Amino acid sequence: MLVEEIMNTDVVTLSPTASIREALHLLQKHRIRHIPIVDDDNYVVGIVSDRDVRDASPSILDKDSDQHVLDNEIQTIMSHPVVTVHPLDFVEEIARIFYDEEFASVPVVQNHKLVGIVTEKDMLYTLIQLTGTHVQGSQIEVKVPHVPGMIPKVTSIFGERNTNIISVLVYPYQNDPNYKILVFRIQTMNPNPIVQDLRAAGYELMWPNNIPEPKI
Amino acid sequence: MTCKSSFVYSDALLDYHFHSDHPFNQKRVLLTKELLESTEQLHQDEMITPRKATEQELALFHDHAYIDAVKNASNGTLPIEKGLEFGLGTEDTPIFPGMHDAASYLVGGTLTAVESVLEDKTEHSLHLGGGLHHGFKRKASGFCIYNDGAVAIKYIRKQYDLKVLYVDTDAHHGDGVQWAFYDDPNVCTFSIHETGRYLFPGTGNVNERGIKEGHGYSFNLPIDAFTQDESFLHIFEFAFKEIVASFKPDVIVTQNGADAHVLDPLTHLCATMKIYERIPQLAHELAHQYCNGRWIALGGGGYDIWRVVPRAWGQVWNVMKTGSPVKGDIPVDWINKWQPETKVTLPSYWHDDESIIPNIPRKSEITDKNEKVLMNLLKYTRSST
């Protein structure tokens, strides 16, 4: 999956000479947490977060505070240089940036110009799509040896039962490198025939599993 | 206490039949009716015949394109690819001849029940052929073709302009009905179900609370797999009472799926007949307290059609009619008539023997987890009362 498929192209920006007050206003108005700072050519020269702006604002507990600090230019508090990504980067790759750098958003830049932004929230939404939990389905977890050809063998059982697969995830099995857990979400309300077929074919199921008697 | 109630029944309801190996089997309705007749709880003058819903009525909720697809599927003229687009011809909802008529009767039965109550012919009405809560606007799913509950509630809104509380105790999330009224503040939906972590459909999280005007009118109580009677009843009763007190409905529609029972082959909940005695009692009591008695009860899921469903659904009628569940023996003539048709042993009593209750090692954790979900569910409702 490419960044351009999940990025938000409607980006709220400010120029470096805008005031901190304007930034505060935009953050509240649009309920966002990051504003890329761009120059006249739409080059990203910095970024501010809601925390940067709050740090630069007077305390709400201080009634007689000097509100003039909000007139300072945003470039005095912005972070730079900015880590950016490209629309053709993989979502999986930029997940690494979010994790390692502890960012909550990254601007997307093409030919040096700002074209979009990806936030932590977009990443989590994408993750939900990958798990398939947003659509109707039943979940089955199969423990398999970590050798070639296991997925086709298991999925052929779904195919024989004419059941659509919504999503497939492959997890490690605890710390044992010799096994993998295959997690399927399948489009049926009655997974029992498939569960029986899988058991008959000798697969160990992690779910459904520890169901007490007299359940199947 | 005896309440005037009607029981919607006709053999036409049994035509909703996918194929002999399919878990959804409407013989349940016949088994329940005969059990009640043998118990002398149900008499001819209490039964009313379902009408067939018109296409205009189906279109109160469903798309015309979808209704046309079902009609074409009925006479074998729907191309396979086209069918799959509408969820027709899948393992869950296979195509069968006459499916449009059969499904229209189920919807019509629910409309008949609605009319019985809202035209003041009876205080309560029961339609066990209905409760097909997974049907979507333009998609069949989870054994459901048309969503009779959604159509009927649209019908109540249009014809009578009443505030409707829909209570769904099926072990699966009542998703089709929830999404149908997700933005409607005049229809409150409340579903208790096994968490969607493993079980179909997967939705029904506590944070699905409705959108726009309807925010705060959608309630979901997803409970852990292996939940047993005490925890189920405690949180259900608590939530039901809070919700009905804050919403103040004009009429209550219940979906009485009977698949949370430990013997049900499709779900992982571990309830017994105790919950099926108490659930209708609560609905009955609250309908009298808040809605002048107006209560329409529907069927739903339930896949142990011999040992569980006839008793569970029978108790809905017993409570509806007399205010309390029947206790004691199952009539011998009913057992003798049906035992030859099944390999499982038919139950001898209305209640369950304790020996069927499994030992659940994580019981206290499950109870604790369910309590937390309850508090989360009611965190806005309670602060406002």
Automatic annotation (TrEMBL), chain A:
Q: Enumerate the InterPro entries for this protein.
A: ACT-like_dom_sf, ACT_dom, CBS_dom, CBS_dom_sf, Diverse_CBS-Domain
Alphabetical list of CDD domains matching this protein: ACT_AcuB, CBS_pair_AcuB_like
Looking up Pfam families in the UniProt record yields: CBS (PF00571)
Identify the SUPFAM superfamilies for this entry: ACT-like, CBS-domain pair
Q: Which UniProt keywords apply?
A: CBS domain
List each copy of the CBS domain by range: 7-63, 78-133
Question: Domain ACT spans what residues?
Answer: 139-213
Q: What is this protein called?
A: CBS domain-containing protein
From TrEMBL, chain B:
GO-annotated molecular function: histone deacetylase activity
Write down the InterPro entries for this protein, in alphabetical order. AcuC, HDACs, His_deacetylse_dom, His_deacetylse_dom_sf, Ureohydrolase_dom_sf
Alphabetical UniProt keywords: Acetoin catabolism
Which biological pathway?
Ketone degradation; acetoin degradation
Gene Ontology terms describing biological process: acetoin catabolic process; epigenetic regulation of gene expression
The keyword Lipid metabolism is annotated on this UniProt entry? no
Record bears the keyword Ubl conjugation: no
Q: Which Pfam families match?
A: Hist_deacetyl
Source organism's superkingdom?
Bacteria
**Family in the record:** Belongs to the histone deacetylase family.
The record's section on PANTHER family has:
HISTONE DEACETYLASE HDAC1 (PTHR10625:SF10), HISTONE DEACETYLASE HDAC1-RELATED (PTHR10625)
Name under which the protein is recorded = Acetoin utilization protein AcuC
